[in-house]
């Protein structure tokens, strides 16, 4: 059974994997499978040794050569086929001198195969509407290699052509010295671009946790030495050894007949011979006693602690009883995570601490606790976390503790039952692949719910307590610290102190338990009397209603059944980044870190959690160009109270100091880590610099972080929370009249808010002045890693939104040329990119930006290549084929995304106050459909101007030439 993913407080993904869309019974599909001479399993191969009820929406079968498959009908989204081909071989299957071979073969398979010449598969799929990198991709892990294709607009011909291409990639990739030399350079570029302190720390952590095991020394990408020494003969031998029918699983979920899917699998894989004796699976090893503590000292790394308890991984029968024990363990960890989170919110020695359990790479069953200390106080943080764990291990939880988590688990599982009919084919195909990899089964969400419900009487405090104790019994215990510097006594002394902090007895902290206090929604601060509706109207084409209340609140309502029992909603207020000029807004950065956690009125965030336990109610905060937003995915029964919580938050915000202290600690701890690589420097500084040092988008310096106090936070944010107008967008499965009544009693009952329209200066967002010599920032990461970008100013505003969409196409063409030439042919970069940024809510400030990572000696080559591409787009109209390969994936994305409420919600933000957004959305598809080569050439001539271009590079700190204009990142 597929296990749930538990994140802090809630299980976020299914336990026994989600449910069917349109059920295709196993019995109905069996004759079709027999017709193509494959065996339809009476006991499906995925369920052997299990008593988990079979998810009969899937048809399982096994070909005569041993290849296994699973197929199902699922029309979410319509006309799409999601195809996965899994090979049971990853980096753990490599010999010492083969490290990186599994990943190399994945690259070679996409480059060319028996059915398509070099690079042509990508072009064929683009013409079908496939976006390379998201719709078509592959992934190598320690235990598997998975090839992925989400084929939109799939008719019989496109489906069969795609199946043929994929089978050629799997069975007969073009493994030649010529292809290897080309792709090896790309993989080395990938290795270079992903290197740095973060990767080094992750490698050392893996080596420490799994010391003595194969996993410790098996990075998926391999080593520079093994990649450089690879040859076609040995790669072909690795392929022959592991790419075999009995090691292959094909999964297809999509809008089609499962019998046809099975027949295509038989056609393209049925004659694949299973020759010779299969290779023996390597021994991944077991955790054993070893060095307890280790550390990684790196100036650009924040202080982080990982504590781990490891037990041997063993293959188990995936039974109901086994899954009941797993569920009980997850509930126990959720309970402790809640205690850890409460302590962090209220001002502990750690910013964050959380327990996670997993079976990593079939190498160990692991209980891990990740800790981020405050101000580097790692000894105190380890002690404080262990004290909370010690109390949980010493004393059984209360019945209220258990019931709290049970309600949250039930909420998640019931939601999965309701949403399974609307779950995408891609997600369900991935679920089968995951189950195969971890050697478990899948089950329909109703089965998950039934199993959990049947456990109710056994989910006692004592049983939950026993489950928690099992998670901290281990064959090996490890602790690992990353820190920006060693203390004066040196690394070995630090290591000894770390081991002592991890192993010495601690005093159990009973104060970490949650209060035994029952709270309800009625404990929120009161609102005023319900407000009346003063106007309403329905958009004639979209049938979306706009409702206006007497206090000025406006709502967009679209009741629909696109997602059963789900409601997507946003409450927008104020002016967002438009609230300030380019010289203001210094504390905007703190809002998303604090406002969700600082409570409502006198109620803390932990007390708010208690009020909404077991319900789909949240307070997610973000900042947009022209509004602040609280967003939520809720359900019909919870809509009224979700609105009430947001209204209470706006009218009675809490100003507790703990969340401010926590936000400061987090921001300060992570500041230096932005300098660990070229990419992370851009993540911190690009938006600020490309907007001409507009302080609204500036990351705070350590001194600015230190200057923040709870009083300053309240002074800055209090007036912003009071500003209007308020727009509510509610799309999904709800009753219109009940929603209007709920709005009337909540947001409609608030006091009228002052609408503060932005001034002309607040609407300004400038692009920096052109430069011939790039602005140069520095990073403290690898010496062979440079980021380079060139940007050209465009425009902004809703009036010219059609032009923005044409620029999206121009950017897609530019991006594809970067990929085909700069990556695939020149191997100068692994991930060159091109983006169009068009701010709809500012009249200017947009840009086209080409970006890459390269070696220092290739920076000028990138700028020259980018200018050559721009000049060619100016001089020569693109071909019809290149235009189709750019436009078709965009159109297919719109077709798929528009089937869900998230798409409509995002595109109609602001429409309650600006009806032009309805018109802009109405032109979306036709704007892309009407793009012509001549129009793109005109845009290239207008915008790709050397006298307007702005360049930026991020170079390694040590080799930046003196006087080259380098400035420390962040200034």
Automatic annotation (TrEMBL):
Residues 1-23 form the signal peptide. Its cofactor is Zn(2+). Coiled coil: none annotated. Residues 231-407, 708-888 form the Peptidase M16 C-terminal domain. It holds the Pfam family Peptidase_M16. InterPro entries: Metalloenz_LuxS/M16 (IPR011249), Pept_M16_N (IPR011765), Pept_M16_Zn_BS (IPR001431), Peptidase_M16 (IPR050626), Peptidase_M16_C (IPR007863). Residues 71-217 form the Peptidase M16 N-terminal domain. Keywords: Hydrolase, Metal-binding, Metalloprotease, Protease, Signal, Zinc. Belongs to the peptidase M16 family. PANTHER family: NARDILYSIN, ZINC PROTEASE PQQL-LIKE. This is M16 family metallopeptidase. The lineage of its organism: Bacteria, Pseudomonadati, Pseudomonadota, Alphaproteobacteria, Sphingomonadales.
């Amino acid at each position: 059974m597929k296990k749930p993913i538990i994140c802090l407080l809630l299980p976020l993904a299914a336990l026994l994997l989600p449910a069917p869309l349109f059920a295709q019974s196993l019995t109905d599909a069996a004759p079709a499978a027999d017709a193509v001479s494959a065996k339809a399993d009476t006991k499906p191969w995925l369920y052997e040794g299990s008593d988990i009820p079979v998810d009969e929406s899937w048809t399982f079968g096994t070909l005569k050569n041993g290849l296994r498959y699973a197929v199902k009908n699922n029309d979410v989204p319509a006309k799409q086929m999601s195809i996965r081909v899994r090979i049971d071989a990853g980096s753990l299957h490599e010999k010492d001198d083969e490290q990186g071979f599994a990943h190399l073969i994945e690259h070679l398979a996409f480059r060319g195969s028996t059915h398509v010449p070099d690079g042509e598969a990508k072009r064929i799929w683009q013409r079908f509407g496939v976006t390379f990198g998201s719709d078509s991709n592959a992934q190598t892990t320690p235990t598997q290699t998975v090839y992925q294709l989400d084929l939109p607009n799939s008719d019989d011909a496109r489906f069969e052509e795609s199946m043929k291409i994929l089978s050629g990639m799997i069975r007969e990739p073009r493994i030649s010295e010529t292809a290897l030399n080309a792709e090896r350079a790309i993989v080395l570029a990938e290795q270079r671009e992903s290197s740095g302190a973060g990767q080094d720390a992750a490698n050392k952590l893996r080596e420490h946790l799994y010391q003595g095991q194969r996993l410790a020394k098996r990075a998926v990408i391999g080593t520079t030495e093994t990649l450089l020494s690879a040859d076609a003969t040995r790669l072909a031998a690795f392929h022959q050894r592991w790419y075999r029918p009995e090691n292959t699983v094909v999964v297809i979920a999509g809008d089609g007949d499962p019998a046809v899917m099975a027949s295509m699998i038989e056609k393209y894989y049925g004659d694949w011979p299973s020759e010779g004796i299969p290779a023996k699976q390597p021994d991944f090893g077991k955790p054993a006693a070893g060095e307890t503590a280790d550390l990684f000292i790196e100036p650009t790394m924040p202080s982080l602690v990982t504590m781990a308890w490891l037990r041997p991984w063993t293959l188990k029968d995936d039974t109901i009883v086994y899954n009941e024990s797993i569920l009980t363990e997850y509930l126990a960890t959720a309970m402790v995570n809640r205690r850890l989170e409460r302590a962090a919110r209220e001002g502990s020695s750690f910013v964050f601490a959380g327990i996670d359990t997993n079976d990593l790479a079939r190498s160990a069953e692991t209980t891990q606790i990740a800790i981020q200390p405050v101000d580097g106080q790692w000894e105190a943080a380890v002690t404080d976390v262990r004290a909370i764990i010690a109390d949980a291990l010493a004393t059984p939880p209360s019945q209220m503790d258990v019931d709290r988590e049970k309600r949250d688990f039930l909420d998640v599982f019931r939601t999965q039952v309701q949403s399974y009919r609307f779950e995408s084919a891609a997600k369900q195909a991935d679920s089968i692949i995951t189950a195969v990899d971890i050697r478990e089964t899948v089950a329909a969400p109703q089965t998950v719910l039934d199993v959990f419900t049947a456990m109710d009487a056994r989910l006692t405090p004592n049983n939950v307590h026993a489950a928690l104790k099992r998670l901290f019994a281990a064959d090996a215990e490890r602790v690992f610290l990353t820190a920006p510097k060693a203390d004066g006594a040196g690394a070995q002394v630090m290591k000894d102190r770390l081991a002592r902090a991890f192993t010495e007895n601690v005093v159990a902290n009973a104060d970490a338990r949650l209060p035994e206090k029952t709270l309800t929604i009625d404990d929120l601060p009161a609102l005023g009397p319900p407000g009346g509706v003063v106007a309403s109207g329905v958009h004639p084409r979209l049938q979306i209603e706009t409702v206006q209340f007497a206090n000025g609140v406006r709502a967009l309502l679209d009741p629909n059944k696109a997602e059963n029992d789900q409601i997507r909603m946003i409450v927008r207020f104020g002016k967002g980044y438009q609230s300030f000029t380019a010289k203001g807004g210094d504390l905007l950065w703190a809002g998303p870190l604090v406002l969700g956690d600082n409570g409502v009125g006198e109620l803390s965030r932990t007390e708010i959690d208690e009020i909404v336990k077991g319900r789909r109610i949240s307070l997610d905060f973000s900042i947009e160009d022209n509004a602040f937003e609280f967003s939520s995915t809720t359900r019909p029964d919870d809509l009224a109270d979700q609105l009430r919580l947001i209204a209470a938050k706006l009218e009675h915000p809490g100003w507790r100091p703990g969340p401010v202290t926590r936000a400061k600690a987090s921001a300060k701890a992570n500041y230096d880590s932005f300098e660990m690589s070229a990419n992370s420097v851009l993540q911190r500084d690009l938006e600020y610099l490309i907007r001409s040092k507009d302080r609204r988008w500036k990351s705070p310096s350590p001194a600015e972080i230190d200057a923040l106090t709870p009083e300053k936070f309240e002074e800055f944010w209090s007036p912003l929370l009071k500003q209007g107008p308020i727009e509510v967008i509610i799309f999904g499965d709800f009753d219109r009249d009940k929603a209007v009544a709920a709005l009337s009693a909540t947001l409609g009952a608030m006091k009228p808010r002052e609408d503060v329209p932005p001034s002309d200066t607040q609407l300004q967002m400038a692009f920096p002045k052109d430069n011939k010599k790039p602005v140069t920032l520095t990073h403290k990461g690898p010496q062979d890693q440079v980021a380079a970008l060139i940007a050209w100013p465009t425009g902004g505003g809703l009036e010219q939104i059609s032009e923005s969409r044409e620029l999206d196409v121009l950017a897609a063409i530019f991006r594809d040329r970067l990929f085909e030439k700069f990556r695939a042919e020149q191997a100068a970069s692994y991930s060159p990119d091109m983006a169009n940024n068009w701010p709809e809510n500012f009249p200017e400030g947009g840009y086209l930006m080409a970006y890459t990572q390269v070696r220092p000696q290739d920076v000028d080559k990138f700028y020259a290549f980018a200018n050559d591409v721009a000049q060619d787009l100016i001089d020569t109209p693109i071909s019809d084929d290149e235009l189709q390969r750019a436009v078709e994936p965009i159109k297919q994305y719109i077709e798929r995304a528009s089937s869900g409420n998230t798409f409509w919600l995002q595109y109609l933000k602001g429409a309650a106050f600006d009806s032009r957004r309805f018109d802009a959305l109405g032109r979306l598809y036709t704007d892309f459909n009407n793009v012509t080569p001549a129009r793109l050439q005109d845009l290239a001539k207008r915008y790709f101007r050397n006298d307007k271009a702005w360049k930026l590079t991020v170079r390694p700190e040590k080799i930046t030439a003196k006087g080259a204009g380098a400035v420390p990142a962040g200034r």
